Amino acid sequence: MADKDLRALFLHQLKDTYYAENAIVKALPKMAQAAQTDDLRGAFGVHLEETKNQIKRLEQVFKLIGEKPEGVECKAIQGIIAEGDEVAEEFEGGSAIDAALIAAAQAVEHYEITRYGTLLAWAKQLGLDEAAELIKATLVEEENTDEILSELAEDAVNPAAAA
Questions:
Q1: Among 16, 45, 82, 154, which has the highest number of CB atoms less than 10 A from its own CB?
Q2: What Pfam families does the annotation carry (predicted)?
Q3: CATH top-level class for 2-162?
Q4: How far apart are CA 19 and CA 27, in angstroms?
Q5: At 129, which helix (H) or strand (E)?
Q6: In angstroms, rounded to a whole number, what is the distance separating the alpha carbons of residues 11 and 48?
Q7: What pLDDT tens digit does each residue of the chain (163 aa) get?
């Protein structure tokens, strides 16, 4: 039964999140290219670099728990990214494209926030203090990115799309 305990669940979630972050690294450049405003392109560029660092943090967590960094297929992130691609394609060239891209990006962010929040709680429960610190740093970045996207949408992108 040891392979179905909280540590095993933590490892599975870690692999899922690792897969998701690597998928996001591939998706962000396409999103940045589709963006119409420099501010949104810039936000996606900043988050791309953050995501690369988040992958490095996840690799550190794997190392801390004596495991090899590897992903397990994450159908949730695949679906979220596919949905974002679909909407971006449908609204390409229209005044609402950046609003669509922000909505897709925030779906990704909210998924990541839930994953990192869960990983953080489990790391604390398992006494993985150093791993918890790394996970918390990423969680804060994800929450900040979500807030930046919200502000960009509310202050500029949504009003422009509605005009």
A1: 16
A2: DUF892 (PF05974)
A3: mainly alpha
A4: 13
A5: helix 129-152
A6: 24
A7: 568 999 999 999 999 999 999 999 999 999 999 999 999 999 999 999 999 999 999 999 999 999 999 999 999 999 999 999 998 899 988 889 999 999 999 999 999 999 999 999 999 999 999 999 999 999 999 999 999 999 999 999 999 999 8
Rounded to an integer, what distance in angstroms lies between the CA atom of residue 160 and that of residue 145?
Answer: 21
**What are the structure tokens assigned to 50, written together?**
């953050």
Contact status, residue 74 vs residue 23, Cβ threshold 8 Å: yes
The DSSP output letter for 37 is S
- pTM of the full predicted structure? 0.94
Can you give 72-116 as a three-state secondary structure string? Answer: CCCHHHHHHHHHHHHHHHHHCCCCCHHHHHHHHHHHHHHHHHHHH
The three-class DSSP label of residue 35 is: coil
26 half-sphere exposure, CB direction, 13 A CA radius? 10
